[in-house]
Specification:
Mean pLDDT of chain B: 61
Structural class of chain A: mainly alpha
Largest sheet of chain B: none
Order of helices and strands of chain B: HHH
Distance between the termini of chain B: 70 Å
Low-confidence stretches of chain B: 1-8, 47-52
Structural class of chain B: mainly alpha
CATH architecture of one domain in chain A: Orthogonal Bundle
Helix content of chain A: 55-70%
Low-confidence stretches of chain A: 477-483, 712-718
Helix content of chain B: over 70%
Strand content of chain B: under 5%
CATH topology of one domain in chain A: Cytochrome Bc1 Complex, Chain D, domain 2
Distance between the termini of chain A: 94 Å
Oligomer: heterodimer
Mean pLDDT of chain A: 91
Shape of chain A: globular
CATH class of one domain in chain A: Mainly Alpha
Chain lengths: ~725, ~50
């Protein structure tokens, strides 16, 4: 057999490694900033660009797509070439992929801080950036599939399947969840509304966890763990079985993010069922990982990289047991809207993804730069600091979650809520937020030690950009090896065919849940009193989204006694039919706002209360940790954009009258004047065009349409 | 209740695809050897280095 000589492309791997180091430091630093801002609201400084609601999405996006994303690309591009015995398909595709990805990260940070956001968690980036992501992602996929096609090794190693599933999964998720109607260069509305938007978004959110944070890292585990430990994986067969079951099951589990919420019951039950089933394939991965080290634990003692991988795989096992448990309705009642979820995601992010990245880098970087690791001692220090950091981060948040939940549901013997003021429960858990900052600071310190170690190693070594390799040519695809082979069989050995099958498998899970919600009207009972947003309310809603209010405030009252007693009537699916996007939220640092316009609710407040609250929250809510929003009083609302927004909403099916866009500004000004007049009576003189007026109008719309007492205006007349 | 029928139909369809894929994989021998691939990757780049 002919032996072919070729080169591995190491330059692209180096680039992604360097990007990981840079963005990792940024992402963790921003995380530290948001943790500080949360506990010490004065640090928001009243500046819109650095307020918690805008910085928190920068942290989440930077960790997922910049830190973990770049590390994943580095790991994939290195291992893909080696297991397939081929250079990457196309150097140019790799370069475009690399630079475009870094550009997207910069654009993301700038636009999010400037307030351009879709308001959908982990999919906050606006439509032009969504398009760039699609291009970069397709470059990655094309490069990978091209390499699979021109491989010299007939058998496709298990890691590569996981990579391919990653590409296909994220492609579907990104496209479906990002279908939005642009109304201006940096503003769009998702085509889905309310419950439909919620189910699509959490189908995306959950599967972003699956296909961006899980499948690629299991693939990386299947390559780097055997390489670093010098042991073959425990069971190759298990890797095959849990691969197929995992990618099939994951797609159905999204609705577990929406338990007790305004969603048909069967959708919730489906999500729970599949979440429980996910334990099996997830633990398949954990068992396979840990058992690979059987008889090699002496190496773990010596090698800090392996230690990180052990922590990572153990955390993966814990998080994938915890996740299904959190999907049980009774547990979810506690974990949802509290810090439990935050603790859960950080166990997964810091220990699983972080641990795999550190473990991989401690092996890969010395290997790639052909030099020993600068300091094993520093690496061990990093390991212990990071582990301690994770514990100090997660444990206080679990504690905080249980504490807050117990307080929120506590009743006095008279049957009244024991803590009617939400802020009381937040203040109680503040010390936990302080300890969590310490945990985050330790983890960040560990990263800096890692960074120094990596840079020293890199500068001591030298990169062979094009590493020579040789392998026998693969028997040409399409050659019939055996007599009697069917004409189609040649196709079956191709990676492309495999990719198509994965695509079909993944699509089905999504289609079953989304299509009925869009097409079957009976799932969305309408409420005749629910009206579309007025131009002023719609503008206020966009300002609410732009400032990331959804990061701390939900708009979803669950049918639980302690919630309906506190906020009012539980949320109905028909209330949200004009919500592009939905704003149900996922964590309550402050109270739910679904009933902020519902007379009789504890969250209903007057206009002047809201004004004072935005200016100085703790002047009306003692010891409030909500940051001040003085800029809402200074900033002019973007009134000129209103007609285009109304036209866009009309296109999405919101029943504004024909030609209403032309009257929209007049309507806006009339409504805004009423609120300005109301404020004037209370002694505040403010122009009706300011942002704060629109936000107040929006808050008074929330829940008003189903309020038995009617609108505040009609009530005022009585 | 039409949704339930759609759901059951599509679920069965998905199950059938997986069954077909499984049968294909077994028949074409992709999974015949469940050991060698796990060891082979450990010898990735030894060839060139040892010759140099």
């Amino acid at each position: 057999m002919e032996v072919q000589k070729f080169n591995y492309d190491n330059a692209i791997v180096r680039n992604f490694i360097l990007a990981t180091l840079v963005w990792g430091a940024v992402a963790l630093l921003v995380g530290l900033v948001v943790a500080l801002e949360l506990a010490f609201p004065a640090l928001n400084l009243g500046i819109e660009y650095i307020s918690f609601g805008r910085v928190r999405p920068v942290h989440t996006n930077a960790v997922i797509f910049a830190f973990i994303g770049n590390a994943m690309f580095a790991g994939v591009y290195y291992s893909l070439q080696r297991v397939l015995k081929a250079r990457l398909f196309n150097d140019m595709l790799g370069k475009v992929h690399f630079w475009l990805w870094q550009l997207i990260i910069v654009f993301a940070a700038v636009t999010l801080l400037a307030g351009f956001t879709t308001g959908k968690e982990y999919a906050e980036l606006e439509w032009p950036i969504d398009l760039l992501i699609a291009v970069a992602w397709l470059c990655f996929g094309a490069n990978m599939i091209g390499t699979v096609v021109k491989r010299r090794e007939k058998h496709i190693y298990t890691a590569v399947w996981w990579y391919l599933a990653t590409f296909i999964g994220v492609t579907i998720l990104h496209v479906v969840n990002s279908i939005e109607l642009p109304v201006s260069f940096l503003k769009s509305y998702p085509i889905y509304a309310g419950a439909q938007d919620a189910v699509v978004q959490w189908w995306y959110g959950h599967n972003a966890v699956a296909f961006f944070l899980t499948t690629p890292f299991l693939g990386l585990m299947y390559y780097y763990l055997p390489k670093a430990s010098g042991r073959p994986i425990y069971s190759y067969q298990l890797s095959i079985i849990h691969f197929w079951s995992l990618i099939f099951l994951y797609m159905w589990a999204g609705p577990h993010h929406l338990l007790y919420q305004s969603l048909p019951d069967w959708v919730q039950a489906l999500g729970v069922t599949f979440s429980i089933m996910l334990i099996a394939p997830s633990w398949g991965g954990m068992i396979n990982g840990l058992m690979t080290l059987r008889g090699a634990w002496d190496k773990v003692r010596e090698d800090p990289g392996l230690k990180f991988m052990v922590i990572a795989i153990t955390a993966y096992g814990m998080a994938t047991f915890e996740g299904p448990m959190m999907s049980l309705k009774s547990v979810n009642a506690v974990s949802h809207f509290t810090d439990w979820t935050i603790a859960h995601t950080h166990i997964a992010g810091m220990a699983w993804n972080g641990g795999m990245i550190f473990g991989m880098f401690y092996w890969l970087v010395p290997k790639l730069f052909k030099t020993p690791l600068h300091s094993k001692k520093l690496a061990n220090t990093h390991f212990w600091i990071a582990t301690l950091g994770i514990l100090l981060f997660a444990i206080p948040l679990y504690w905080a979650a249980i504490t807050q939940w117990l307080m929120l549901r506590e009743y006095t013997p008279d049957g009244l809520l024991a803590y009617p003021i939400f802020m009381e429960t937040t203040i109680r858990i503040l010390p936990m937020y302080h300890i969590r900052i310490l945990g985050g600071a330790l983890y960040f310190t560990g990263f800096i030690i890692f960074l120094v170690n990596m840079l020293k190693t890199i500068s001591a070594g030298s990169l062979v950009a094009n590493e020579p390799a040789e392998a026998p040519a693969m028997v040409k695809l399409g050659t019939r090896e055996e007599s009697g082979e069917s004409p189609h069989r040649w196709l079956e050995r191709k990676g492309v065919r495999f990719a198509i099958l994965v695509f079909i498998a993944l699509s089905i899970g999504g289609i079953v849940e989304i299509i009925p919600m869009m097409k079957v009207q009976s799932n969305i009972p309408t409420i005749s009193t629910v009206t579309p947003y007025t131009p002023l309310e719609l503008t206020g809603r966009d300002i609410y989204i732009s400032n990331g209010c959804y990061n701390c405030h939900s708009q979803q009252v669950r049918p639980l006694r302690f919630e309906t007693d506190r906020y009012g009537e539980y949320s109905k699916i028909g209330e949200f039919v004009y919500d592009h996007p939905f704003q149900w939220g996922s964590r309550r640092t402050g109270p739910d706002l679904a009933r902020a316009g519902y007379l009789g609710s504890s969250t209903y407040k007057t206009s002047i209360w809201h004004f004072n609250h935005f200016m100085k929250p703790n002047s009306v809510v003692p010891r409030s940790i909500m940051p001040a929003y003085p800029f809402l009083v200074v900033n002019e609302a973007d009134i000129n954009a209103v007609p285009a927004k109304i036209r866009g909403m009309r296109m999405l099916g919101v029943p504004y009258q024909e030609g209403f866009d032309k009257q929209a500004i007049a309507s806006y000004m009339a409504d805004a004047q009423k609120i300005a007049d109301e404020l004037k009576l209370a002694g505040v003189d403010i122009k009706p065009t300011k942002e704060v007026i629109a936000v107040i109008a929006y808050l008074h719309k929330l829940g008003r349409d189903i309020s038995p007492a009617g609108s505040p205006a009609s009530n005022a007349k009585q | 209740m039409n949704i339930l029928f759609i759901l059951i139909g599509v679920s069965l369809f998905a199950a059938l695809i997986f069954l077909a894929m499984f049968i294909w994989a077994v028949k074409t021998g992709q999974y015949d050897d469940n050991y060698t691939p796990s060891v082979r990757i450990l010898f990735d780049e030894e060839d060139v280095e040892t010759k140099n």
